[in-house]
Here is the input.
Amino acid sequence: MKGVGVSPGVAVGPAVVAIQRTQILRFTVAPSQVSRELSALQRAREHSREQLRQIRKRVAAHSGPDLAFIFDAQLLMLDDPLLVDRAEAIVKTKLANAEWAVHLAMDEVATVLDGADDPYLSERKGDLHDVAGRLRMNLRNDTGGVRDLVRRLDRPCVLVADELTPSLVAQLDWTHVSGFATDAGSWTYHSAILARSLGVPAVVGLGDISQRVSPGAIVVLDGASGELWIDPNAQVRREVEARAGRASGAPPSTSRHGPLSTRDGVRVTIQANVDRVEDLWAAKHTGADGVGLYRSEFLLSGYDSNLITEEYQYLAYRRLVEASEGHQVTIRAFDVDDQQLTATATPLHFRPAHEGSRQTGHAGLRGIRASLAHPEVFKSQIRAVLRASALGPVRIMFPFVSAVEEVRAARRLVEEAREELGEDRTRSEVPVGVMIEVPAAALMAGALAREVDFFTLGTNDLIHYTLAVDRTDERVSGLYQPLHPSVLRLVRLVQRAGARQGIPVSICGEMASDPVILQLLIGFGLRTFSMAPSAIGLASHVIQQTSAAHVTTIAARVLRLGSVADIETYLGDALDDMPANVVSSIREE
Amino acid sequence: MTSAAITVTNQLGMHARAAARFVHMASMFDARIQVECGSRTVDGKSILGLLLLVASRGTTVTVTAEGVDEVAAVAALLELVRSGFADGASSE
Here is the structure.
């Protein structure tokens, strides 16, 4: 096949195929795609098995073997011929996609179970629904699947995708990707810049490559000529490899020393988003300058919240602050639903609601709202943070703020907590800030800036609520667009409000991990970014190649454009001079 | 082929926990195992299949095994049913 070579070099490796595009829940597949569906089902099954084992372990440890038994039964169902074997048969005979087939197989069993008038059986039907639901979720969550697959591979793969969306780019560990190929799409310019920044050979504009390559097939591509072969014979492979003047797929060096600045000398700070103290070791290795977001709610996962005492939290925060060795640590107050804040551990509590502590999109009693509804829980958290602040520079951040009154109420509680502790046990200066992730807060940034010491833009939720798009719903996930002009304007508004008031503004959403958007954000005047440790190496590299003056001009132009398409086209042209510099610097290293 | 019949004697019959134990035991053997109850025959290594039998207390089930270790399989499974599905019986 032949496409457009956008990043030179030769890559060879087993294909990992990522389909980012909207999928229909039920569709028929071509006969040639059956094996792909079956392997997806197998992956989902393995993934589900691993999840169930983890849950079982947690439940067994906290509630004893009797409750853990539920998950034994579910694990058996995962291997049950009536469910998975049957689903496989349905894929083969009806050419149904795996997700649909699982649903059909479950329906068959459920119908028979319905016929039996036995209360115990209806309970098991609940388990059956759980297992089938988990399988389908894992099938659909192929983004996570790809990410994990890439990480697990023992040798670098060739990533084949319909398009490389910013969220996928941010999630992948690029040290495991030797090259990539895409169908094409609006992100062509983006793929090109990304590939050259990474020094990864790439071919784009291949049309239907993501449909034609089955996962695991050996893909050989030449990023200079734009050629690509699927399962080529040994001779072709030798010939192509001989063309390679240099080793392919060497990612930019990830360790860095000293302060980070742009090509024209503007200082930029990169911090790490951290869920657990352990993440911090990886972050420090990549040169992170402190923790820009510590998601404290991870302390709650798997535990009865009654067990999460002030003392327990203090120990956790102390470890975090000590491990940061004098760098700034920003601790975000629990961003969970009210129920998770107060619930005791039960198997139900462990089931879907808690997995991954994922709260994106939830608009109920969560974040600062839940904290204010439970002032004692909130104050015990604040006391623990204030105590840890004696050991290093700590900041407190309130999540999900939508009004000035919430900030005032929360600050009053912080003052109460401080008085309860007494002056000598805390640091005198503990900045208090808010996460800007609700459009209401972004629009009122000017007023909020007078009430707090700093802002952190939480772009994942901000995009979600601004565009009213649930990224986990594939039917609309394509509308989740970080470059939407409304999002960019809100980001700019918040940055200006902070600058006018003289308070720091940082950004901790995924969009900052995207090399293209990162440059644009620098152009908006943002200077502090917090991201997943795995994204820091690439981001540092991009920052060092960026001219702040140049991207500031570009950013001003972008703000005058009215559509995503216009912005993408403009960025494609405007940033085009950047990759050459990046490539040359990689070669010098 | 080896086959034997036995009556389910534990309080709740062959419901979830009992069925899970049965599947665990059956899966240790290579033999193909089937369980028959009334008009229905199911795979002895399928928890969903066993649940579908709705084998309550007092029901007679027939365990059939076919394969190299069929004799041992039937003996072990019969013993499991006879014991009221091992230690779980009394607590249920």
